[in-house]
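hey so u asked for the seq, here:
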Amino acid sequence: MADLLIKNVNLVLPEEVREGGLAVENGKISSLLLSGESVDAEEIIDGRGCYLFPGAIDTHAHLNDPGYTWREDYEHGTAAAAVGGYTTVMDMPLQNDPAMTTAALFDKKENTVSPNAYVDYCFWGGLVPDNFNNLKELRKKGCMAFKSFLGPVSSDYAPLSYGQAYEAMKIIHSLNGRAGFHCEDMSMIQWLEKRMKEQGRLDWQAFLDSRPVSAEMIATLAVIEIARSTGCKAHICHVSSPDVAQKIKEAQKQGIDVTAETCAHYLCFTEDDLTEKGPLYKCAPPLRSKEEREQLWDYVADGTFSGIASDHSPCTWEEKHVSLMGRRIDNVFDVWGGISGIQSCFQAVFSEGCMKRGLAPAVLTRVMSENPAKAFGLWGKKGALLPGFDADMVMIDSKQEWEIKAESLYYKNKISAFEGMTGTGLPVATWVRGALMAAGGAVVGKKGYGALIVH
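ran it, structure tokens below
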């Protein structure tokens, strides 16, 4: 007898949507059923009229735990992920205090966060100029990939030069790892920001002008060429520009193992939101034009991306409006840069993509589940509604209209650029390894059920 049967539901498979059912035993998907087929089960759920997706994988989230927990922590961040439909979160290493750059700090982080996770999680390892000798041990511990910056950073860790990136990628290649980069060219941004301040340009357009697409392009092309030379697998984080996505697509066609993600905010918002509404929409790379936003959807549809990430980068209201790290905010360059979105991304992308633009639901299965699972070594366990895979699932009611309100957010700081957004198609239930973790917009599962996944 199965533990759970979900019947009369639209199963969102990688190539099609098929009406039928799904059975779960011992936390795993045991069988897929055709329409009308059934099995005996302890619990039966009628999913009529809904879509059942494999749980989404968030390839890029900053949960800030340990260290910066006044911004976010695992209890709040993973609760929000569960409500939103992300069943696996890949947590970034550098917005921790201290940044997770050694095997000992890996253990410290795991001991700190494991009692508080509602969804499964895995760790990126930190990649900074002085920890190349620690990469092997971090990989042994189970880090799925290694993350670094090529542009300016907002804390006390340092970005890599292109020479350092080359050396690091040779090491990571020997470990069969993947190197991920925040791709914005350091020298260009530093110079342009300096010029903006000298000219007294301290408004939001000045911020946009200080981080042009060319800065993102230069850094991305450098990573592609280093990946070509070293053979190292690479990942381009939070792609904001369709022109950059095109270069990644071309590299993929050439056989270079370079994956990439975009983010829900680049698919939903534009630079006009930043210039008109201000701090909550500041992120890096910045939001782009309406035309670029629309073109970016083409690269979602064609499979260029391995992830639509949240890049959940929370902060307090004060850090967006008053002071940051003890320094008064006097202009746009001082404002905390990051968007909180881990709870809202799936519904926003489903509404904007499938409901408004006619994107096939199967495309979201590929880009939010299958592709990231394959890119980061989770395939076979995560990423699809297939027998033997973990029963990570999210049910979407495609007819349910919604408006995102602050009081509905599980974040420690209930602020988000997504607040006020409206749409159609809402996650109404989320399962992690067969356990119901969220239903009706509320967390119903057990804190600490989420487990660390290692490669």
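The longest helix spans residues 213-230. DSSP finds 14 helices and 20 strands in the chain.
lmk if thats what u needed
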